[in-house]
Amino acid sequence: MEEANVLLLTSSNSDADDIQLPNRGVKDLIRDFSSESKKLWYLAAPAVFTLVCQYSINAITQIFAGHIGTIQLAAISVQNSVIAGFAFGIMFGMGSALETLCGQAYGAKQLEMLGIYMQRSWIIVGTTALVLMFPYMFATSLLKLIGQDPEISKWAGTFAVWMIPQLFANAINFPIRKFLQAQSKVMVMAAIAGVTVVGHTLFSWLLMLKMGWGLPGAALALNASSWFMVLANLAYIFSGTCGQAWSGFSCKAFQNLWGFVRLSFASAVMICLEMWYYMALILFAGYLKNAEIAVDAISICSNICAWTFMVSLGLNVAVSIRVSNELGAGHPRTAKISMIVASFTSLLFGILLALVLLVCRSKFPLLFTNSKEVQKVVHELTPLLAVTVFINSLQPTLSGVAIGAGWQAYVAYVNIACYYLFGLPIGLILGFLFNMGVNGIWFGMLGGTSLQTAVLIAMVLRTNWNKEASLAGDRIKQWGGDSVAKAIDAS
């Protein structure tokens, strides 16, 4: 009951600086909401811009490919969604363990541990990338094995081999992003992403269309853009701008590796189950009649969904930082109000973006393809797409709360039940048994996402935030080692 009367937002390391509780009026609550909104948007705005730019790199490549031919668009879509999506989900998820550890350590002022955590993640994610090379190398055979169209499989497999350099760029870049985000250093990431997307657009146009290199030009542009971001971020970190958070390479990075692997694995499972669920849409679309048209249409809708998803993912990043920082600092009530403000803001943007899609349903398909058949299918899917955008507006924010609090293992079980035991079977039944095609598959995806969002809402409503703050302190001791534990106990 007392947690409901929230008030005064601040950010220091004592309980007195957490949100205070005496009864206050509506004006005070509005002021508190506004104060927390400013803190969230200071983090979310550059994060949204960064995410839009980073996602746009692949989406821009697909746009250019769509103007070369439908087989090229389908090949890049399948490679990005199935082969790269499989690897991306694993490595991004493993890197996401840093959101919990770095965020809570930063809140507890244990800055020296951030660089060590990042180095441990490089070791683990880099080793994982070596293993993930094999699906890239044998992509054609794997796609044919699961029944994909032979021509699409051939082109997608060839493109996958060319994209191996991007795999290793991501293995370095994902931990870097979490390291910088935990310190709220999001502006530099936004600047680097903005420069990259402009350069990538020009480079892709030059190689793919002007010079007529097609898929090889797409691969060269994507690899160059990915490595540019890695090198630019490393230059920023190594320049000394991160203070105590980066003091150079350390042998401590090799300590507690197995325990770090377990936490990274839990994060990977949580993220992968979400990402692979959407990847399955394009995979199963390849089994429908007119597979090329179906794959192209659903990949375009997935692209639009993902673009609009960036706003909520930006709030995901912001609320994850705020929740992890405040729990690490011992401020449970501030963490709770951050979750409430972020969720409300996400829903408002979801409504706005869904309305924009409905108004522009006849226009945006033209950006992706010249095929009238594909444009027609995308037009028919747009109402479902708009509903998906609205529901998906809240889900990433709640996932950000889960990551900030360290609930990855619990959410993984939720994702299995909602996505794979509920949503996916419904999509297959509607799409194939009831001959609803792409619409049926999308209905199933929407059902799974809706159920998962409802379960996450129930989880956060039942959360004991005081207990979560205590668990954050224990987690910092466990992963920081003896010296950190003594420092925390002494304080």
From TrEMBL:
CDD domains in the cross-refs: MATE_eukaryotic
GO MF assignments: antiporter activity; transmembrane transporter activity; xenobiotic transmembrane transporter activity
Localization (cell): Membrane
Claim: Heme is one of the keywords in the record: no
Pfam families: MatE (PF01554)
GO biological process: xenobiotic detoxification by transmembrane export across the plasma membrane
Stated family: Belongs to the multi antimicrobial extrusion (MATE) (TC 2.A.66.1) family.
Protein name: Protein DETOXIFICATION
